[in-house]
TrEMBL record:
The name this protein goes by in its record: DNA-directed RNA polymerase
Domain RNA polymerase Rpb1: 1-103, 210-585
Organism name: candidate division CPR3 bacterium
One Pfam family recorded for the sequence: RNA_pol_Rpb1_3
Gene Ontology annotations for the cellular component aspect, listed alphabetically: DNA-directed RNA polymerase complex
Length: 685
């Protein structure tokens, strides 16, 4: 066809079908395309490059974001209206409905199911004869069938023709996913009972051929689990959202730049936890440290530079896999965040405005998908491994900084591992660390020595007499080396540190006999308790772990949440510090205050020559952080009303009305826009 109009006219006259391959001259170039793609490109804004490929749900989201960036809000709204009308028009004409003959089972599926059934029978026989434990039997059973389901799921999709309506629905990523189609075409697999325990009787038929009576009965248990989850977990998800809002409602953009020199590490290795790659994650953030090219040593971008797509490409192209960015986690603005540490507003793609309530935005952005995830259980029919109840409790665990279920054992010291048996089904993992302390003494003369030809001394034993005639004693027990020329005694004391962990023989070890481990390293498989990470590797590492694991749960369920939102919440979890010694301030021991407000107050006290405040920092759960809020109005309207108000009355607490909730409660205007700017004295309180 000579141009797009000619091709569209031919389609309207019924000469060519919608999806037929055609050649069209576009901008002086012959393009292999179809009428459908020409119609789609007609609705794009003027001047937008020609799109000549199938688009799924996520591609449309990216396209909308791109149109918004290039053409602005008004043109994006018009484009979405045109997309909506065109979509409904052609969906109506298409009459898109899968038939039973479209449900094609992959070849050799039945033989492989039969083979896995035989292996399952052998497994159960080994258990009955006492060769394996119940734990090993359950795990092997689930692994065996999960592996088969995964393989057949991939083959089911590959086996379908591109014109198959089921394949089109999967590729569009709109409604179903391949696991649902596998249940219809191949087999259902293992289901869970209402308590979430796998039923060790696999359903080997699919919905096309129909289940037998026994399988139907088992499948009902999976369906019941879906209904129970929908009823129970929705309320939990709503409560999570409420806690998130309560902990973060006071986080507003308060100033342009807090001047923080701290940076939060953004690493390429963390890509495995999320769907967004390293290059995309850095766009829209400000740098905390200069980025230097590893080969040419030239500066790619300086501290406080905004990372644009061009700079992101340069950093990624240079093979750099770790940068330090400004983050709400390391922001020094008391009671909020600054523009530089937050970066670009995700709604406008411009620098975030002063007064923007980023805390509430973060809480809603993380709470809303958790509601969706809960409801999504129902669609999967209680299939093992596809269930959000393995996800939502994990999200709660992380946000509440709880000891996780099936917590991993973490090495508390550096050292060498040795493993020994400790009775029935128990093993001891011992980490030993040997260090040497060396002390050197100068003695006046040979006559002054008190140790003769000894090679070892005990703690407190006399070594020699000094010039005043006083006996110099050994600080610790150890070996001694005398250098008679230099007239020195070297005392070498070996310090042996040992930690022992008694574990069940069923736990999966990540270390072996003779391994050298570092403090904070995992000894067994499982999730780490973040409070242990704080002690062994520091607060930033614990916050990075929490951020990555929350992202892992969301992305596993196909939900994209921007790192910024999680950083705002995780920042609040470590925001409040407990006063250990109030120094010369008017604060009380045990009181909780904003860390950066205390640091500013300490600077003021030191300038005046007064004693500074000493405090301790810990990672708190969102519920605890919300109750420790400096605003007693906010805390009392959340939970434990009587206790919060009693405590506030006893110590004569003042509420400075810095957040959103406390202003709403007493009927004032909320601090938005320039009203969110608080002078430094008012920030410190």
């Amino acid at each position: 066809f000579a141009d797009v109009k000619e091709a569209l006219s031919a389609y309207e006259c019924g000469e060519i079908p919608l999806r037929a391959p055609i050649k069209v001259l576009i901008d002086g170039e012959v393009v292999d395309t179809s009428v459908g793609r020409l119609i789609f490109n007609e609705i794009l804004p003027e001047g937008y490059p020609f799109i000549n490929r199938p688009l799924n749900k996520s591609d449309l989201n990216k396209l909308t974001a791109d149109v918004f960036l290039k053409y602005g809000e008004k043109e994006t709204i018009d484009f979405l209206d045109r997309l909506n009308k065109t979509g409904f028009k052609f969906a109506t004409q298409m009459g898109f409905s899968p038939g039973i003959e479209d449900c094609i089972s992959p070849p050799h599926a039945k033989e492989r199911i039969k083979q896995t059934l035989e292996e399952t029978n052998k497994l159960f026989m080994n258990y009955e004869m006492g060769f394996i434990t119940e734990f090993e039997k359950s795990h092997t059973f689930v692994d065996m069938w999960s592996k088969l389901i995964e393989e057949i799921r991939e083959e089911t999709v590959k086996n379908m023709d591109m014109d198959n309506p089921l394949r089109a629905v999967i590729d569009a990523k709109s409604r179903w996913d391949s696991s649902i189609v596998t249940q219809v075409c191949a087999f259902k697999g293992i289901v869970q009972d209402a308590l979430g325990k796998p039923i060790e009787l696999p359903i080997i038929h699919n919905f096309v051929e129909g289940l037998n009576e026994f399988e139907y009965f088992i499948a009902c248990k999976g369906a019941r689990k879906g209904l129970i989850d929908t009823a129970l977990r929705t309320s939990e998800s709503g409560y999570l959202t409420r806690r998130l809002v309560d902990v973060a409602h006071g986080v507003l953009i308060r100033e342009e730049d807090c001047g923080s020199k701290e940076g939060f590490p953004m690493c390429k290795e963390d890509d495995k936890f999320r769907s967004d790659p390293f290059r995309n994650r850095m766009i829209g953030r400000f740098l905390a440290k200069d980025v230097i090219h590893p080969k040419t040593k030239k500066i790619i971008a300086k501290r406080n530079d905004l990372i644009t797509p061009e700079i992101a490409d340069a950093i990624d192209g240079a093979g750099i896999d770790k940068i330090f960015i400004r983050s709400p986690i390391t922001c020094h603005t008391p009671y909020g965040c600054c523009q530089k540490c937050y970066g670009i507003d995700l709604g406008t793609h411009k620098l975030v405005e002063i007064g923007r309530p980023v805390g509430v935005l973060a809480a809603q952005a993380l709470g809303e998908p958790s509601t969706q995830l809960v409801l999504r259980t129902f669609h999967k029919g209680g299939i093992v491994g596809t269930d959000i109840t393995q996800g939502l409790p994990r999200i709660e665990e992380l946000f509440e900084a709880r000891v996780p279920k099936g917590a991993a054992v973490v090495a508390e010291i550096d050292g060498v591992v040795s493993i020994e048996e400790a009775g029935k089904d128990k093993i001891n993992v011992i980490i030993t660390n040997e260090t040497e302390d060396v002390f050197v003494y100068d003695y006046p003369s040979e006559e002054a020595l008190l140790i003769g030809r000894k090679k070892k001394v005990e703690q407190g034993e006399g070594l020699f007499k000094d010039e005043k005639g006083e006996v110099v004693k050994a600080i610790k027990s150890g070996e001694i080396v005398i250098d008679r020329e230099a007239k020195t005694i070297k005392l070498i004391s070996k310090v042996r540190e040992e930690t022992k962990y008694q574990l069940s023989a069923e736990e999966e070890l990540l270390v072996k006999d003779g391994d050298v481990v570092k403090a904070g390293q995992l000894i067994t498989k499982g999730n780490i308790d973040p409070t242990i990470l704080v002690e062994t590797r520091g607060m930033l590492e614990a916050q990075r772990y929490t951020l990555n694991n929350i992202q892992a749960v969301y992305s596993d369920q196909g939900v994209t949440a921007n790192d910024k939102h999680i950083e705002v919440i995780v920042g609040q979890m470590a925001r409040y510090v407990q006063i250990v010694d109030p120094g010369d301030s008017n604060l009380l021991i045990g009181e909780y205050r904003d860390k950066y407000a205390i640091l500013e107050l300490n600077k003021k006290l030191e300038k005046e020559g007064k004693k500074p405040i000493r405090f301790k920092q810990k990672l708190m759960g969102i519920k605890a952080a919300a109750l420790k809020s400096e605003s007693f109005l906010s805390a009392a309207s959340f939970q434990d009303q009587v206790r919060v108000l009693s405590d506030a009355a006893i110590i004569g607490k003042i509420d400075y009305l810095r957040g959103l909730k406390e202003n709403v409660i007493i009927g004032r205007l909320i601090p938005k826009g320039d009203a969110a700017r608080l002078s430094r004295p008012l920030l410190i309180g």
